[in-house]
Amino acid sequence: MDFPRSRGWDGLRCAPAAPKLGVNPCKRFSLNIEVSNEKSGDELKIHQVTEQTFLSAPHTDHTEQFIVDALRGAGALTISQVAKADGEIIGHVAISPVTLSGGTTGWFGLGPITVLPEFQGLGIGSKLMRSSLATLEAMGASGCVVLGDPGYYSRFGFTVVDGLVFPGVPPEYFQALSFSGEFPKGEVSYHEAFSTKG
Ligand SMILES: CC(C)(COP(=O)(O)OP(=O)(O)OC[C@H]1O[C@@H](n2cnc3c(N)ncnc32)[C@H](O)[C@@H]1OP(=O)(O)O)[C@@H](O)C(=O)NCCC(=O)NCCS
User: Fold this and answer.
1) How far is the CA of 125 from the centre of ligand 1 (A)?
2) Ligand 1 center to residue 117 CA distance, Å?
3) Which of 28, 95, 152 to mutate to test the pocket of ligand 1 (most atoms within 8 A of CB)?
4) DSSP H or E segment with residue 75
């Protein structure tokens, strides 16, 4: 079962940045943000950050933390990167393989991506996007798809592609980024871990 069919298409839709939750702006200014690959021992904190971030997000059934766990358990967490502020994990991005109906291989899906609400709007999500996509390209991937707010993801080169579809989703919310300049056609399915409910 794929992700949006089970969750409704808006289950992956990006929410506008949440209100800031009482972090001293002076302190935020001095934050040292680093993005790195997940390390052994990060799993619980990633679960907690994902859970906390989506608690305040609309259009979700709050299962994203279980999806990340399930992807990892299935060996399908191709890229798992964390953002750390002064050494503490405060954001995360997952990239996993997708299947194309036409048989094209080498394509992946980005998400979930999370930044704790009190750290949103500081460019940390952008750092996670750029870092994970650069890693994916360096691995030799053909491209990446994403389901979410077109205004946010187009900042990173994602674009709506004619003929590359995610059934049941308004076309403008499903975008792709090709590393080779070529785009496949057909229907895209996410990993079965996206149907995990907890
Ligand atoms: C989406 C998310 C990861 C972005 O992280 P972030 O650190 O706030 O992003 P950045 O600081 O790099 O970028 C902020 C910019 O993106 C915009 N933005 C953030 N979320 C957006 C969205 N859903 N749609 C459109 N624009 C968005 C902000 O308005 C801001 O714009 P500005 O640069 O013009 O001020 C974060 O908001 C989040 O965790 N949201 C809740 C979980 C979620 O919905 N994840 C995506 C679906 S899996």
Assistant:
1) 6
2) 10
3) 152
4) none
- Which of 141, 94, 108, 113 has its CA nearest to residue 53? 113
63 in the Ramachandran plot: left (φ > 0), alpha (ψ -120 to 50) or beta?
Answer: alpha
Fold classified for 3-195: Aminopeptidase (3.40.630)
pLDDT tens digits, one per residue of 164-185: 999 999 999 999 999 999 999 9
pLDDT of 3 higher than 80: no
Please give the model's pTM, rounded to 2 decimal places. Answer: 0.88
- Preceding amide of 112 cis, omega within 30: yes
Read off the pLDDT of residues 68-96 as tens digits, 9 standing for 90 and up.
999 999 999 999 999 999 999 999 999 99
Ligand 1 in contact with 79 (CB < 6 A)?
no
Contacts (Cβ under 8 Å, ≥6 apart) of 177: 133, 143, 144, 145, 146, 156, 157, 158, 159
Measure the CA–CA gap between 52 and 57, rounded to whole angstroms: 9
Q: How far is the CA of 151 from the centre of ligand 1 (A)?
A: 10
